[in-house]
Design a protein that fits this description.
Length: 239
């Protein structure tokens, strides 16, 4: 079964490959709804996996990333730097990367990843250059406008990108984002996905239905609901 840009596997559970994603932000060039902008890149329509999706730069941890790494985290840092350079031509040093969250692809999806999400501030005049192969296009957007474009069907997003954009939209500027992101433990998302009627429910820890993988259980909500390419995030677990 294929839904929401993901292919589900009815066979044995696929392993979750280590990977890294970089949420690159910069001060907004034009003050609109936000004083920060985020870099989104579009995956080629010719790809078999996540074709046409708008994502943050990133990819799998490769053997060269693990070679000199003392831990899985260091390997993910190396992958984040390498993938950012390969996909956007931007150089982001390790000291500029801060972990924002960690996402594991739900069990049942054919291709699964255990992904470190880093945030990095770019405030110089580095030019973004995409390869035109795996990555077709890029856009700098303020988070609120990116979310509006998603609602209009102009951008196709997966839940990790969508929820991260919602988090970015809560912050007034880059400094506030970095201060908040570095002050606490990164949030871990290990979704359990199930279908109810025409919607996919991605249940996260803290949702009343998480343990039973049952979206109909009444109580607190921490989930993303996907109907076609439209997403809605319900979260009432924050203090």
């Amino acid at each position: 079964m294929r839904a929401g840009g993901m292919e589900f596997n009815s066979g044995e559970e696929a392993p979750a490959h280590p990977s890294a994603t970089v949420v690159i932000v910069r001060p907004a060039r034009q003050a609109a709804q936000s004083s920060l902008e985020v870099l989104l890149v579009q995956r080629s329509q010719q790809l078999k996996h996540m074709a046409g999706m708008w994502v943050f730069p990133g990819g799998r941890v490769e053997p060269q990333d693990e070679r000199d790494a003392a831990s899985d985290y260091e390997a993910a840092l190396a992958a984040a730097i390498r993938e950012t350079r390969e996909e956007t031509a931007l150089d982001v040093p390790a000291q500029n990367l801060f972990q924002l969250s960690h996402w594991t692809t739900p069990v049942g999806v054919k291709k699964r990843y255990a992904t470190w999400f880093f945030v990095a501030l770019v405030d110089d005049d580095q030019e973004v250059v995409v390869d035109g192969g795996e990555i077709a296009r890029y856009r700098w957007m303020c988070p609120a406008l990116a979310l509006e474009a998603q609602r209009k069907g102009e951008l196709v997003l997966l839940p990790p990108t969508y929820i991260t954009l919602l988090e970015l939209a809560r912050h007034g500027d880059c400094n506030a984002l970095l201060a908040d992101g570095c002050s606490g433990e990164p949030t871990r998302f290990e979704p359990r996905v199930t279908q109810l009627d025409d919607a996919l429910h991605f249940l996260y820890d803290g949702d009343a239905g998480y343990e039973a993988s049952d979206p109909a259980v009444e109580g607190r909500r921490h989930r993303c609901i996907m109907v076609g390419n439209q997403l809605d995030y319900l979260c009432d677990i924050r203090d």
